[in-house]
Amino acid sequence: MKTKILVSACLMGFKVRYNGQDKPLIAEVLASWQQEQRLVVHCPELAAGLATPRLPAELVGGGGQEALKGMATILESDGTDVSQHYLLAAWLALKTAQDSGCQLALMTDGSPTCGSQKIYDGSFQGVTQPGMGVAAALLRQHGIEVYAQTELVELIARVDELDKANSS
């Protein structure tokens, strides 16, 4: 059984980000994994019904773990509270990963949904801080390992390790 990976749609070239753009992660390994049908391409925000393009959103008052507990909010740049939309996005990402048998996820860092290493600090000044978005936090709570696009080397090693364990 080949290891399955949930991957942010914007990393695969889909123009689904808040600004209507993609963030393609051009890597031979992703093309190979896609041909092997390992990748489950998913955009949590689009799945939750958010428009493209949309206003930028940032976590305020904490990270994804705090937002899942209702202790932090997700605001758009105009001050609109969109926490419920992003929480739905997180739960849809988890459901997609679980229904598809994904053990791993490759997500876009910095996002209030998909960030796994860093998120924006809520000031809308382009300042990042260590932290996770709501989907990354929820996936990790349910045992799915989340990697940022900057951790592709680590993800490749982990896929190889899991494939070896699954084939024995």
Q: Rg, please?
A: 15 Å
Neighbour order of strands in the largest sheet: 2-1-5-8
β-strand amount: 15-25%
Whole-number mean pLDDT: 95
Query: What characterizes the major β-sheet?
Result: 4 strands, parallel
Give the SSE order as H and E letters: EHEHEHEHEEEHEH
Distance between the termini: 10 Å
Helix segment tally: 6
Question: What is the number of E strands?
Answer: 8
Counting helices, strands and paired strands, the structural category is alpha/beta
Q: What gross morphology would you assign?
A: globular
* Helicity level: 25-40%
Which regions have little confidence, pLDDT < 50, spanning 5+ residues? none
Explain what you see.
- The chain is an alpha/beta fold and 168 residues long.
- Helix content is 35%, strand content 20%.
- Strands 2-1-5-8 form a 4-stranded parallel sheet, sandwiched between helices. Strands 3-4 form a two-stranded antiparallel sheet. Strands 6-7 form a two-stranded antiparallel sheet.
- The longest helix is centred in the middle third of the chain and has 18 residues, at 83-100.
- It is globular.
- The termini are close together.
Give a brief outline of the structure.
With 168 residues, this protein is of the alpha/beta class.
